[in-house]
Amino acid sequence: MASPNNPSQDTHAVPVKERDEPLDLQAFLDEIQSDAVMHSQGLDAREAASAVMCTLARRLSEGEDVKLFRALSGGIGEEILGACTVHLGPSRARRIGRDEFMTDVADHLKIKVDQAARVVAAVFTAVRDRIPEEEVAAVASQLPADLGDYFRRPV
Question: The organism sits in which domain of life (predicted)?
Fold first, then answer.
């Protein structure tokens, strides 16, 4: 039997799977990828998260998007929000409702709007699981009521 003080003698030790992604980011992507709509539509979690988060960041003030970026630790903010190029543009903090938000995400991912709602729900849930309640409230407060409620509620 291996000594608890010398793990190199433990012949049953399994090496930790090497990942290209930081562990927090990988857990975030795994959570999103596990949603049924991701499989049924053949969507990639990183692409879906990027579409939703870019669309969301475009709807927030510059200060709030930075706070959200910082609240998403473990590489999530840097890899997902930091890489956003599709939806960033001059129309920052534009207040749109839930329907237009879903349409923007659907267009980005080239899927139907009803499928986009499920993708958005999966990403919002994964984000909410990783940020403090006060940040959830701050983000939701910058969105129109129907979209703010969608971001705020557990799915």
Answer: Bacteria
